[in-house]
Design a protein that fits this description.
Layout (H helix, E strand, L loop, with lengths): L7 E5 L6 H15 L4 H4 L1 E5 L5 H8 L5 E4 L16 H6 L4 E4 L2 H6 L4 H12 L4 E6 L3 H5 L3 H13 L11 E4 L13 H18 L2 H6 L1 E4 L5 H8 L6 E4 L6 H8 L3
Parallel strand pairs: 1-2, 1-8, 2-3, 3-4, 4-5, 5-6, 6-7
Helix pairs in contact: 1-3, 1-12, 6-8, 8-9, 11-12
């Protein structure tokens, strides 16, 4: 972790929690982190399902914990049944939004082009985009990890001027480590984060690459959070399963 970059610890609740469950977890989290040093030195974000955004916003009120959406549509409004716009997320109190999560790519066939359209839509609003990239096990074992990630970055950032990327956050999620209990070792994760930073330096500028926060996602738990965060190029975590329990997520947020 580089101390010039404020770390972000984000909870992705995916398709879990009814409104009462989400509210209860948010209240517990607020109590656990209240007044602790972690909220001053790091940004904490919770990404609940859309149905629970309003309730979680209310439960977290005054806590300093931010709200994030798990996805959005690139249009402001329109005939897009089942979709949610950036304006709607802002209306619910969101500050962050996840883009191109591996599950969106895998199960809902989101292409790099779709992710790029979403990113461009987000950059014209106050929302902070968290762009997710990562390779599958087959791609890693085939020696294509670097090519795959660079293609995802290039695809997502196509047509976006470097000057507009000052708000960008990247999340590296090795698909083979999500929900499998396998974690990229801190050394492997740091190496990929460094590669992403070098790519951003070439595509944009060294200053921009040095400022961008790159989060690690993939079976982050209280037991490995500190070791991951100690690495130079790892600026936080996107936490899935371990974020569903307030106590476990609070322990990750408070990593030493």
């Amino acid at each position: 972790m580089n101390h010039h970059r404020k770390p972000i610890i984000a909870a992705n609740w995916k398709m879990f929690k009814t409104v009462p469950e989400a509210r209860e977890t948010a209240v517990q989290l607020k109590v656990l982190l209240d007044g602790g040093p972690a909220l001053h030195s790091r940004e904490v974000v919770v990404c609940p399902p859309f149905t629970a955004l309003a309730a979680v916003k209310e439960a977290l009120s005054g806590s300093g914990i931010q709200l994030g959406g798990q996805n959005l549509h690139w249009e402001d409004e329109g005939a897009f049944t089942g979709e949610i716009s950036a304006g709607m997320l802002l209306d619910c109190g969101c500050r962050y939004v996840l883009l191109g999560h591996s599950e969106r790519r895998q199960f809902f066939f989101e292409t790099d082009e779709a992710v790029s359209r979403k990113l461009r839509a987000v950059l014209s609003t106050p929302l902070i985009p968290v762009l997710c990239v990562g390779e599958s096990l087959a791609q890693r074992e085939g020696g294509r990890m670097e090519a795959v990630i660079e293609a995802q970055l290039a695809g997502a950032l196509a047509g976006v001027e470097a000057s507009r990327l000052d708000r960008l956050v990247v999340a590296y999620e090795p698909v083979w480590a999500i929900g499998t209990g396998k974690t990229a070792t801190p050394a492997i994760a740091d190496q990929v984060h460094g590669m992403i930073r070098e790519w951003l330096a070439r595509r944009c500028s060294a200053d921009m690459a040095a400022a961008v926060r790159i989060l690690y996602g993939g079976s982050v738990k209280p037991a490995n959070a500190g070791e991951l965060m100690a690495r130079e190029n790892i600026d936080g975590a996107l936490v899935g399963g371990a974020s569903l329990d307030a106590d476990s997520f609070a322990r990750i947020v408070e990593f030493k």
